[in-house]
Amino acid sequence: MLSSTGLWAGLVLAGATGLVAASFPAPPVTVRLCADADPQRQGDLALQDGLDRYRAIAARGGWPVVSGGPPLEPGSRDGRVRLLRQRLALEDTAGTAASSDAEAFDSVLAASVRRFQALHGLEEDGIVGRETLAALNVSAAARARQIAANLARRSALPPSLGPRVIIVNTAAFSVEVLEGDRRVLQLRAIVGRDSLPTPDVSSRVTDLVFRPTWTIPRSIATKEILPLVRRDPDYLTRNEIRVFRDSVSGGGEVDATAIDWERVTRRNFNYQLVQEPGPQNPLGGVKLVFPNAFDVFLHDTPARSLFSRYRRAFSHGCVRVEHPERLAAYLLPDWPADSIRAAMASGRNRRVHLSEPIPIQVVYWTAWAEDDGRIAFREDIYERDALAAGG
């Protein structure tokens, strides 16, 4: 169970693969460390304590490197198991009990491996495979720099965001709702791929749109949709995508079958594509609208299977939410559950304005403190930690 001590204390969910260590200096970090700090900032204090611990481990020479080879798993015997025990014991506050046979991979060691995997957003199978080995072999000094980077970016945020807030942590593929220092909702998320990263955003959710149409961005329309239309003239009709002249060309709907798509290029593409609600629409049954300069939003998705992955960077930049009906139910407490399900299943562009908009922070936290003081880490998928640390 991860920390519920405050807004900045951490997030729960399956996350990413092992971190690739970055080479950047550890800058001085300034955070509020007074004893009566706002409850929403208690996680900063714990993260600062973690930074001190990891720097101390690094100063003592760090931890041993576990060499590569076949996966280490419960029941196996391997000379590397002794090093694995030593490595985990330096970081696992729950303890990695000594064994009469230090080279035997026993159940106690497997439990310690699973705790490590949970802290790093890896598959919790108790097996030291490629991803787990990579995370184990990130040095203590690199972890300290990662913590410092997160303290630096967190110190720039407001000391309090009010009585309730939606937090989207793109590094952890997470959406959660906090009321004060209590987590009331937690959901998995899919975020922008490495080449199309989800930006950091500070805003307020003002509206929900049920069964939204999708106005396809020009970049997607020209790079992805146009080649498909050229190969398959029925593509637009089959996927319920309507074609409109863009505003420069006077607007108005156009018969897609009357267009010679072979003569249309990215440069002379003067259309706007709008997909109707339905099973092919990637926005699914609902989207959450919050004003921002990047035109990103949270939304449902028909691609449910992707939520089972522990590394979930697949979108064009918006955030797809698992079980968005739960988030809608929280934001619309007067709506019965069956009304929400019905609104997500039928209709078109039904906009519901929130009487009390809720703050939303889309953040990028690759390290945070758990309630027991342990530090959770995630892969720096967008390679932002060096920038945050001033490297």
Give a verbal description of the structure.
- By secondary structure, this protein is of the alpha+beta class.
- 26% of the residues lie in helices and 20% in strands.
- The chain has ten helices and 15 strands.
- The strands form three sheets. The chain has an eight-stranded mixed β-barrel. A four-stranded antiparallel sheet has the order 5-8-6-7. Strands 14-15 form a two-stranded antiparallel ribbon.
- Strand 2 and strand 3 form a beta hairpin.
- It is elongated, with a radius of gyration of 24 Å.
- The N terminus is likely disordered.
State the gist of this model.
The protein is an alpha+beta fold. The chain has 10 helices and 15 strands.
